[in-house]
Amino acid sequence: MASSNIIEAKNLKIQFQGKIALSSLSFSIKKGEKVALIGPSGAGKTTLLNTLATIIKPDEGELWIDQLSFKEMQNRKMLAKKLGMIRQQFDLVDQLPVIHNVLAGKLSDWSLFKSLLSLIYPQEKILAMNALERVGLGDKWSEKTSNLSGGEQQRVALARLLVQKPEIILADEPVASLDPARAEDVLAILTKLVHEEKQTLITSLHSVEYAKKYFTRIIALRDGMIYFDLPAHEVSAKDLASLYVLKEKV
Ligand SMILES: Nc1ncnc2c1ncn2[C@@H]1O[C@H](COP(=O)(O)OP(=O)(O)OP(=O)(O)O)[C@@H](O)[C@H]1O
To answer: With contact defined as beta carbons under 8 Å apart, do 54 and 48 qualify?
Structure first.
C-alpha cells in the first residue's frame, strides 16, 4: 500500500440476504482528500461508509485504514483515533447540555471514572469551549442540546469531532435533514475544519452542487459499483445525467 494512501480497498464485496450491495469495489484515498460519494438511492453509499467505519464486515475483499487491516481496526481506542463518524441524525444526547455532547468525543480516551465525573464536572472544559468557539457556538455550551436548531445541533456534532480529532471523518448524508441555507453552512464549516486539521473526509451527499463546490473528488456509485471516480471539477453535466437516469423497466 502506498504510504500516502490512508484508505485502500481491494475487491470489496458486500451482500445482504444474497443481494449484492457492493460489487468488487477497489479504490484508494490519499491523506487530505475530500471525497463526496454520490449516486442514486440504493447505490451503496451508506453500505460503503459503514464498511469503511468497520461496522459492516466485507464478505470478500480487503480494506486497510492507515496501514491497518480490518481486524486490527477492531480495537475501540485505535478506531476512535483513526475514524470519526457524523450522520444525518446527529447522534447527540438531547437531554444533556451541549458541552457534554462535545466532550463525548473524548470518551474513548478517558477512564470510566473520568467519564462519569465529567457528567457532573465537565473535564477538559477549555478544549470543548475552544471547539464550540470554532463552530460558532461559544455562547451555547450550557444550553440543553434539544433546545438548539437542527443546524446548530449538527455544529455540536462537528465540535465533538474536533475534540475527538480522528484522522478520517466519515459523514453519511450529514446535511440531509437541514434546510438549504443551514445545509450549506454546515458543509462549509465541516470542509473548512477538515482542511485546517489536515484530515481526510468522505461524505455521502445527495446534492451534486455541494459535492462539486466543497469536495476535491467525486466517487459516483450505481448498483454497488463505481460508475465514475473523478476530480470534482471534471465531473460534467453529461456524467451526472447518465448516473441518475432512471432505468427502463424490463
Ligand atoms: N441491513 C440491510 N439489509 C438488507 N439490505 C440492505 C441493508 N442495508 C442496505 N441494504 C441494501 O443494500 C443496497 C445499498 O443500500 P445503501 O443504503 O447502501 O444505499 P444508499 O446509496 O446509501 O441509498 P440512499 O441514498 O437511499 O441512502 C440497497 O439495495 C439496500 O436495500
So the answer is: no
Element housing 9 (H / E): strand 5-16
Ligand 1 centroid to residue 17 C-alpha, Å:
12
Where do the structural domains in the chain lie, given as residue ranges? Answer: 5-244
Classified as helix, coil or strand, 89 is coil
- What fold, for 5-244? Rossmann fold (3.40.50)
Pocket of ligand 1 (CB under 6 A): 16-17, 21, 39, 41-47
The count of C-alpha atoms lying within 13 angstroms of the C-alpha of 150, restricted to the half-sphere facing its C-beta, is: 15
Please state the rounded mean pLDDT for residues 57-69. 92
Considering all CA atoms of the chain, what is the largest pairwise distance in Å, rounded to the nearest integer? 63
Mean per-residue pLDDT, 154-178:
91
What atom of ligand 1 comes closest to residue 173's alpha carbon? Answer: 27
Maximum mean pLDDT: which of 52-56, 117-121, 187-191, 200-204:
200-204
If pLDDT is split at 50, 70 and 90, which confidence band does 248 have? low
Read off the amino acid at residue 99: I
Look at ligand 1, atom 29, and give the residue with the nearest C-alpha: 42
Cell for 143?
A: 444550553
What is the Cα Rg of the chain in Å?
19
pLDDT higher than 50, residue 50: yes
Q: Which of 40, 29, 41 is nearest to 82 (CA)?
A: 29
| Closest approach atom of ligand 1 to CA 37 | 21
Which residues make Cβ contacts (< 8 Å) with residue 50, sequence separation at least 6?
56, 172
Mutate to test the pocket of ligand 1, among 14, 15, 16 (most ligand atoms within 8 A of CB): 16
